[in-house]
From TrEMBL:
GO biological process per UniProt: methylation
Designated name of the protein: Methyltransferase domain-containing protein
Superkingdom of the source species: Bacteria
Entry keyword set: Methyltransferase, Transferase
All copies of domain Methyltransferase, residue ranges: 51-151
UniProt cross-references to InterPro entries, sorted A to Z: Methyltransf_25, SAM-dependent_MTases_sf
Organism for this UniProt entry: Nitratireductor arenosus
Single Gene Ontology MF annotation: methyltransferase activity
Length: 225
């Protein structure tokens, strides 16, 4: 499913936010979007495996996955045409067009068969996108739904900042709100609920004193169901 009325509003908002920022996004975000490289290392993509990023933004993460896993097939979707234009340039500049497909779609509900010609992926990941997506809970469900048996959904995003100084946490949240970003304080509870619903296991780690969280949800293989 591509962006509908609600998704269209969010796409316009993201385009307005990042139409100019996208050109310096990767240079500036590396200082505070912590844990992204750790997520990529943890993917452990099988040889020839497929990887889908929900909310692929500038394509920075997919390019990193391509370097780390040279035989992986890469897929990415984003709701923002401006971000996708940057992602296409990133992929072309790195010479990854032959193994990467990008599409515009709403991460809260999409048809992978229509977008990419396939229903399932070995790995799906979401990097600092849930905190920007209205109805982010549906993105978790959509990611789990398109996992192949034995596949895993990987998530990194802002945490509750529970072990950081209160002034730092409040300042961070106020600053993030200027960019329509909100840490999802109920993330762990949603992941636990969705793991039970999909028969998946959950690993949930707090990073950097709660600044960020890294979660892995793994669906059982046919022999385990």
């Amino acid at each position: 499913m591509t962006a509908g009325a609600h998704g269209g509003d969010h796409a316009a908002l993201m385009d307005a936010n990042y139409r100019f920022q996208r050109h310096v996004y990767d240079l500036t975000r590396k200082f505070y979007l912590l844990g992204r490289d750790r997520l990529v290392d943890a993917l452990q993509v099988p040889a020839g495996g497929s990887v889908l990023e929900l909310g692929c933004g500038t394509g920075r993460n997919l390019a990193l996955v391509a370097k780390r896993y040279p035989h992986a097939r890469l897929f990415g979707l984003d709701i923002s045409p401006a971000m996708l234009a940057t992602a296409h340039r990133t992929i072309a500049r790195r010479g990854l067009g032959g193994r990467t497909r990008l599409a515009r779609a709403d991460a809260t509900g999409f048809d992978p068969q229509a977008l990419f010609g396939r229903q399932k992926f070995d790995r799906v990941f979401v990097s600092y996108a849930l905190s920007m997506i209205p109805g982010w809970e549906r993105t978790v469900a959509a990611g789990l739904d398109c996992l192949a048996p034995g596949g895993s959904l990987h998530i990194v995003d802002f945490g509750r900042q529970e072990r950081l100084p209160r002034w730092f946490a409040s300042t961070l949240r106020a600053w993030l709100a200027r960019f329509h970003v909100a840490p999802r304080d109920g993330l762990r509870e949603v992941l636990e609920s969705e793991s039970q619903r999909f028969g998946a296991s959950l690993r949930f780690d707090s990073l950097f004193r709660g600044y960020a969280v890294l979660a892995v949800m793994t669906r059982g293989s046919p022999s385990e169901t």
